[in-house]
Specification:
Length: 805
């Protein structure tokens, strides 16, 4: 094989990319490492400054912060076309982060690329595969790692016979071993199970003002709390960046959110994004970066800003960001990165918006007037003031009794979050009360876990009746072996998580999940009902006396230094030539990828409709998480969950579609496999914002694997649309959304115009009804020339291999 640098050079030349070596272009004023783990990878603010100045001169106008960071990472700032919402930007991200569920497919694709090393700093984080069942230590031991690369992390004594009877000891060892060895082989840092949730680890170690980071998880925007542009992507996008070729992003619009006033009392940073979600809805931020600014910003802690940016994913935003300020500097210093803070001070003018910059949309929120909110159920944009949700629940017939309160997750698991929850708990304990509801606590990282144990917060929450879970995603992503209810039982839970789609947390479609701040969750878990408003309502202590909870107050950062806890990081070795990465051909968890077939050069004739989806169809509906996470590295096995959560408009049922050949109704994956076996190509018809939610590219890989050729909808969520393109599928939208109603599940479709497939030119679709009549409609697309090449090659990965040759 050719040397790595030569392979990358060939790829770049084939793509028309200008050769660009930062070290030879500029000499920085000060060399400051991106992180302690990569002492030879430096922050390049000088280059950012140079690119910003080039673009500002070209555009001749003030720039938003989002524009400064994004345009500051252009591959060709002098020649790149720049038009918000229209042009495709070619960018050079600083780094890549992958969580373990998506890293499997990303690394399998990178292995398929044939490249020997990643071109940018990259990390893998083991957080998604640990199921909440017995409590933190025991759950972690059930999913423990022994990759045989470095000294094994000891998680405690072996499982008891009763614990082992669950049959889940070492359930993820094969996957962890693959990720650890692949990381070592290809130069990727590896954060072991128990280290914490990817976004908290990034905030603590890798995010910094002005960084452009892409992550294979939709809540990557969490890093915007430290002034970075951090964007969730699919694994194929991560492979592009790790391969050293420019990453494409449609030039985002910028939505400004001006914050005035200041937070106080029970109102928290979470309430800001809950309020904004209610304003913009789940698709209001699509194609845009949400940029917070204004005098109210300084009243929010750095981790509070991260909370707001994290949940920006629920409004469809490309990402969210805050301007650099003293709260960020304080957090950087407390997490051992004062040198980065000092360097950021030197370049501060480039890490805040220009005065007089223009936003495509402007929202104003007065923090002094903002009240505590709680959003749900079943969608994160259904916003209610906490004071009113009880009445709404009574009117709507939602269960008032709260079965479980859950705090933590990547959205709200900071030291400040735990402290405010503990402050509420202490008041209840002082009056002899514990939680009426079940109560769980998920620390965001090993550092947070160790620090809240040292400072007493964890014990206070246990005394209230809480169970401290592992430093992992757990119930937030459906990794919850819930025992207190039966599937189909109507119930209510309240969480400090970010997402509350149907069945998201426990696979029960009748669980009414509400999202709010950790302190409100704690208060509601103590009261046990949605009707409780901690601002006005009283509780009764064990002495019979009534009392009211005071608004919680807590330090945003520990007075002492953070306790790092156990060392859970594995450095990639300098020499990995002898490192092997094994994937067993009989494995049920991992499967090497085979290339998808190339386009045959013809129009798509007589496509069968697999399903016409009714209403909301998230990536959870398309490729469920929870128990299916264990198959994320095995494309054929995980394809058995294809669209099992989507509602078929023909019969109003989930996972029940008509087989056009046999006329029998059956599961969606079985029907797709039948079509594939018999050479029948098919399409999916979808509604608005199809593919919202998680960044999981399996929702694109699975239909491609089982024979889909196109997905036709009223509109797409950004990440999912890109993922479909990457896998050689056609994501198309109705030129007239009313044409959705013209198509029936029993029709056949022909898509014409592919021989002349060009950017901006609609394709024709002929609808063939069973009675012999036909209708012709137009389908729009957002493909550019490069993406059309992906389609013709069969996938972006196929195209990459073509360019290597």
């Amino acid at each position: 094989m050719a040397p790595y640098s030569l392979l990358v050079t060939r790829l770049q030349k084939a793509l028309g990319v200008r050769q660009y070596h930062v070290a030879s272009v500029l000499c920085q004023r000060a060399k400051v490492a991106m992180s302690h783990f990569e002492p030879n990878e430096y922050i390049h603010y000088d280059l950012l400054e140079k690119n910003i100045n080039i673009v500002r001169k070209r555009l001749n106008r003030p720039l938003t912060l989002s524009e400064k960071i994004v345009y500051g990472h252009l591959d060709d700032p002098a020649g790149q076309e720049i038009e918000r919402g229209k042009s495709y930007l070619r960018l050079r991200p600083d780094r890549v982060a992958m969580q373990d569920a998506t890293a499997q497919m990303a690394m399998l694709q990178f292995i398929s690329s044939g490249l020997p090393k990643v071109a940018v700093p990259s990390t893998i984080h083991c957080d998604h595969l640990i199921e909440a069942q017995l409590g933190g230590e025991k759950d972690l031991r059930r999913a423990k790692i022994n990759p045989g690369l470095t000294s094994t992390v000891q998680w405690g004594p072996s499982l008891s016979p009763k614990e082992a009877s669950f049959g889940l000891q070492d359930i993820n060892q094969e996957v962890y071993n693959f990720l650890a060895t692949a990381g070592a082989k290809y130069g990727v840092g590896f954060w072991k199970p128990g280290s914490g949730i990817i976004h908290q680890i990034i905030l603590e170690n890798y995010a910094y003002p002005g960084v452009l980071l892409i992550g294979t998880d939709s809540h990557t925007p969490n890093g915007g709390g430290l002034g970075g542009i951090c964007i969730g992507v699919g694994g194929a996008d991560a492979v592009d960046v790790m391969a050293g070729i420019p990453w494409e992003l449609k030039c985002p619009k910028v939505i400004g959110v001006k914050l005035t006033g200041s937070l106080s009392g029970w109102t928290s940073p979470k309430d800001v994004i809950l309020k904004v979600a209610g304003i913009l809805t789940v698709k209001g931020g699509t194609g845009a970066i949400v940029e917070y600014h204004g005098p109210g910003v300084d009243s929010i802690s750095c981790t509070g800003m991260a909370t707001i940016c994290n949940m920006g994913a629920e409004i469809g935003a490309t990402t969210s960001v805050f301007p650099y300020n003293q709260r960020m500097k304080k957090y950087l210093s407390k997490t051992g990165r004062a040198d980065i803070a000092n360097l950021a001070d030197e370049f501060k003018d480039h890490l805040v918006p220009d005065p007089g910059c223009h936003y495509d949309q402007l929202i104003e929120v007065n923090l002094s007037e903002l009240k505590p909110h709680i959003n749900g159920p079943f969608t994160p944009d259904l916003a209610h003031p906490v004071a009113e949700v009880g009445k709404v629940a009574e009117k709507e017939g939602w269960p008032l009794d709260i079965r479980v309160g859950l705090i933590g997750s990547c959205t709200n698991s900071s030291y400040e979050d735990m402290g405010r929850s503990a402050a509420v708990a202490k008041q209840a304990l002082a009056h002899g009360l514990k939680c009426k509801s079940q109560f769980t606590i998920t620390p965001g990282s090993e550092q947070i876990r160790a620090t809240i144990e040292r400072d007493g917060y964890a014990q206070i929450l246990r005394d209230l009746g809480g169970i401290v879970l592992a430093n992992a995603c757990g119930p937030c992503i459906g990794q919850w072996d819930r025992k207190d209810i039966k599937k189909g039982e109507k119930n209510t839970i309240v969480t400090s998580y970010n997402r509350n789609f149907t069945g998201r947390n426990d696979a029960n479609p009748e669980t009414h999940a509400f999202v709010t701040s950790p302190e409100i969750v704690t208060a509601l878990a103590i009261a046990g009902t949605l009707k409780f408003n901690p601002e006005t309502d009283y509780l009764t202590g064990t002495d019979g006396k009534k009392f009211k909870l005071e608004a919680p107050d807590a330090d945003e950062l520990p007075k002492a230094e953070f306790d790092p806890g156990q060392d859970t990081y594995q450095h990639p070795p300098k020499d990995s030539s002898g490192q092997h990465v094994d994937v067993s051909p009989t494995s049920q968890r991992l499967q090497l990828l085979e290339p998808f077939d190339k386009w045959d050069g013809k129009d798509l004739e007589d496509l069968q409709i697999l399903i016409k989806v009714k209403g909301k169809c998230t990536t959870d509906h398309i490729s469920a998480a929870g128990p299916w996470l264990k198959f994320r590295g095995h494309l054929d096995n995980i394809s058995n969950n294809l669209l099992i959560g989507a509602i078929n408009i023909e019969n109003g049922k989930a996972n029940s579609v008509r087989n056009a050949v046999t006329q029998e109704f059956g599961p969606v994956p079985d029907t797709a496999r039948y079509y594939k076996k018999h050479g029948i190509r098919w399409v999916v018809i979808g509604d608005e914002n199809y593919g919202e939610g998680s960044s999981r590219e399996h929702a694109a890989l699975e239909p491609r694997h089982l024979g889909a050729r196109a997905i036709i909808t009223k509109s797409f969520a950004r990440i999912h649309e890109t993922n479909l393109k990457k896998q050689g599928l056609l994501p198309l939208t109705f030129a007239d959304p009313a044409d959705y109603n013209k198509i029936h599940p029993v029709d056949k479709l022909t898509i014409q115009g592919l021989k002349d497939f060009t950017p901006g030119k609609p394709l024709e679709c002929i609808i063939k009804h069973p009675n012999g009549t036909q209708e012709t409609i137009l389908l729009n697309h957002t493909f550019n020339e490069t993406q059309i090449e992906w389609f013709r090659a069969g996938s972006a990965l196929n195209r990459m291999k073509e360019l290597q040759q």
